[in-house]
Write a structure and sequence with these properties.
Number of strands: 6
CATH class: Alpha Beta
Number of helices: 3
Distance between the termini: 30 Å
CATH topology: Nuclear Transport Factor 2, Chain: A
Mean pLDDT: 80
Strand content: 25-35%
Radius of gyration: 19 Å
Number of domains: 1
Helix content: 25-40%
CATH architecture: Roll
Length: 174
């Protein structure tokens, strides 16, 4: 099951890399040529490696939340890193405590990563994931669709900003 989920998560990334590689095989445009052929960027293996590393970082964040263990994700965060969401602001150093508090109210979290977009310079990522959780007090289960913007410094998280509608989320009513 885990292999199928991982494969499903990596397929869009693999497709994007394959598309980039196929277009990179084309010769670059001669600037003296008057033809209307578009100029194609050359394949940059470092950018693809960075994309894989960022995708792995995102997967570790999801896994840390599912397992209630910030230790899985902590190395990805700068000591000065912060998470900002409709629920509040949490410095990286307080993330494990915040996680423990969250799971006093909720259980059975499943995070499904839908999309990861990475800036060309590799310092920003946009994530779309579904947060599927059960409220402990009454067993209500719901999915919150979440969009996240991440600022990276040296490949580590400086800022993790989440955007979702708290109005329909069971997270708003622990």
């Amino acid at each position: 099951m885990t292999q199928h989920v991982l494969l499903a998560l990596l397929l869009p990334l693999s497709y994007a890399v394959a598309m980039k590689e196929s277009t990179a095989a084309q010769a670059p445009r001669d600037p003296t040529d008057d033809s209307n052929q578009p100029q194609v960027a050359r394949h940059d293996p470092a950018k693809n490696d960075n994309a894989v590393k960022i995708r792995e970082l995102v997967d570790r964040q999801a896994q840390a939340w599912e397992k209630h263990d910030f230790g899985i994700a902590a190395p990805d965060w700068l000591p000065s890193g912060e998470m900002i969401s409709p629920g509040g602001h949490v410095p990286a150093e307080e993330m494990q405590t915040a996680m423990a508090g969250y799971f006093k109210q909720f259980r059975d979290l499943r995070v499904t990563v839908k999309n990861v977009f990475i800036s060309t310079d590799g310092v920003k990522a946009a994530i779309e994931w579904d947060w599927d959780v059960t409220r402990r007090r009454d067993g209500a289960r719901a999915v919150t669709h979440d969009a996240i913007i991440v600022d990276l410094v040296g490949g580590r998280i400086a800022s993790w900003r989440e955007y979702f509608d708290f109005g329909n989320s069971i997270d708003a009513k622990p």
